[in-house]
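Suppose a classmate hands you a notebook page containing two proteins, each written out with its sequence and a corresponding row of structure tokens. How would you begin to make sense of it? This section walks through that situation. The first entry is reproduced here exactly as it would appear on such a page.
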Amino acid sequence: MTNPPPAIACSTRRPGTGRLVASCRARRGFSLIELVVVSILIVILGAITVPRMVSLEKRQEDKALIEVEDLLRMFAFRNSVGTQQIALHYDRSRNALSLWILDLNPDDPEGPRTWQQDRLSYPVDLPESMVVTEAAADDAVLRDEIWTIASNPDGSRPRIALLVAGKNLTGEIVLDSYSTVPVRLDKDGSVVREPIDLDAEGREFDRW
């Protein structure tokens, strides 16, 4: 049995002599200096890339919270100017919020009204890093995978509170039943005004 040949066997014959001189050597791995240089480059690239990714994700979450506010503002507007019931719908499997309206069924105009997605507003698709962790309609807390908060047949609507949590931002948005402007409670200086019954408190002559 013969021994296996070397992995690399490089030699040359020096002119004018009968000697063989090694012209190359087999390399068995990286040197310590090379490993240090590569490690430093990886650290530098990570220090540049990671903050940019976090900043991009944070901007996406902030944009999503603004869109949720706009959707609640549209909910209040459609409720105040229309006669149809309007509803806020959330589907966690799609991670989307949308407005629905109780309207005539186009396939059966003479039949009962049916809930349909509102054509005058766009749904809010939350980024993968965000989710609606909790919602409340007046005192009823909703934590289901799918829920709907609808206005009342008499035209009134419940107080809506949403807690939207992300990796970088968490927004607590409230739309009071008497207001058309949602409020972000997570922002400094945000105040939710509570209704006061002046007659019940004996302040019927107070200016307001």
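The notebook's second entry, a different protein, reads as follows.
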Amino acid sequence: MKPTKVRFMQLLNKQICAPISKDLRKKYSRRSARIMVDDAVKVIRGEYKGITGKVSKISTETNSIAIEGNKKEKLKGDKVDVYIHVTNVIITALNTEDKWRLKILEKKPKSNIKSMKEAAKKKESKKEEIKKKESKKEEIKKKESKKEEIKKKDTLKHVDKKKNGDK
């Protein structure tokens, strides 16, 4: 396959992507995925808002999909599929029969900003805990040193009293 053809296909794949529902986002840690036949989608914008169903056809030329059961009747009585643009739908269930697709979905996302922020927060909290422990240790050491100083003073006073009492 020519490199230009591959780049063109990659472009088409990006154009036929749609956002994923929140529970799928948590599962696959991705915001969007390429729409494939037999994916369950829900229309969230436009004339057909609220319709849910499986994808029956995909049109790469118009970046739109046809949903099963969603047909329009022509004047002659023929029923024709209604194509809905991919930006107006959200994916509610993925077709997991394709092993390649599963591998792609389970890969780590390119943008790890959220995970990086979480890691930074964890590091900060660990540093704070370590600082708290160190400050507690320092306080204990200060208390012990004060106790030792007091003991030394008491022993010195006691020794001075004995010396003064002997004289």
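A careful reader of the second entry would note: The chain is about 50% helix and 25% strand.
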